[in-house]
Amino acid sequence: MISKSIVVVVQLLAWLAALAGYVGLALHFSGSQSRMLVLAASGAPYLMGSAVLGAVAFVAMRQWSGAAVAIVVVAIAAWTQAPLYVGRSGDADGHTLTVMQANLLFDGADPRALVDEVRARNVAVLTVNELTPTAVEELGRAGLDQVLPYRFVSPGRTATGTGIWSSYPLTETVEYDGFVLNQLSATADVPGVGPVAVYAFHPVPPVYGTRVWADELSRLRVILDRSPADRPVLAGGDFNATYDHRQFRAMLSGRFADAAEQAGAGHLVTYPTDKRWPPLVGIDHILVAGGSAVAVETVGLPGADHRALVARIQLNAR
């Protein structure tokens, strides 16, 4: 027979698990700019998942009131995360191309490994963050300019640099002022599709300052909202925000969608890869308008602290 004290302890743990799930829900919907809450929101799915353990424990103990509370939390949590797994089929019926987003950790990532991935996966558009002048030179020596002959880059010291490489000619290049890190856009002329707007973004991480982080995400959303409505748009970047940050989900309103959500790819964790534990959060994203992602996956880059993101995207026909 299980002692009464053990039952009390299990009950307490079950309630704590349900409470943790509720906290995860609150973080998912919160728009707070508190540093602690913004950072905690990155782990919201893990907190929500703990409610499952609480529900199982309550059911096992036949504590039906507790089970009801935990099950409600689980149901709402599942509703918040389901879009990442269900997918959204679009009406795109045109040219299919592959887009890659990579954070290079300054000069850390192996340039030849990146070029090999670009070549093997037939990547047509590459957006890069934390691009230094040295990295530009090393990528050139590794053959990136032969695989993707058109580029618009703004390299910088440490994390500031950003770049776009493309199989297609790039015009209408813009570097946006007023950001801590470099934000770029260009127009790629894709045969059979016409002009495609390409953005490479890198807002500051919330540890830099959550108000600056939220402001930069908001201003990047304005840039996207002003993108030409008569052409497809691709925006790759280390957004320093997960799907569970309300500030990031605001960018998905209107015509834009997250490629991973479109493809039903689930939680694609990309950071960090330079620790003793596996990556925990997905802060790299590819946003799409005027097209639909049919497949998205992460790719390891030796020497980087992020996994790269690769998406196959079908663009609307011209």
Could you characterize the architecture of this molecule?
The protein has about 325 residues and is α+β, with helices and mostly antiparallel strands. It folds into two domains: about 5-80, no CATH class; about 90-315, Endonuclease/exonuclease/phosphatase (Deoxyribonuclease I, Chain A, 4-Layer Sandwich), CATH 3.60.10.10. It has helices at about 5-30, 35-40, 45-60, 65-80, 85, 110-120, 135-140, 145, 210-225, 245-250, 260-265, and strands spanning about 95-105, 125-130, 150-155, 160-165, 170-175, 185-190, 195-200, 235-240, 255-260, 285-290, 290-300, 310-315. The strands form two sheets. A six-stranded mixed beta sheet has the order 3-4-2-1-12-11. Strands 5-6-7-8-10-9 form a six-stranded mixed beta sheet.
| Category from helices, strands and their pairing | alpha+beta
**Which stretches are poorly predicted, pLDDT < 50 over at least 5 residues?**
none
Give the termini separation: 72 Å
- Superfamily at the CATH H level of the largest domain? Endonuclease/exonuclease/phosphatase
Number of helices: 11
At CATH level 3, the topology of the largest domain is Deoxyribonuclease I, Chain A
**Number of discrete domains:** 2
Level-2 CATH architecture of the largest domain: 4-Layer Sandwich
Q: What general outline do the C-alpha atoms trace?
A: elongated
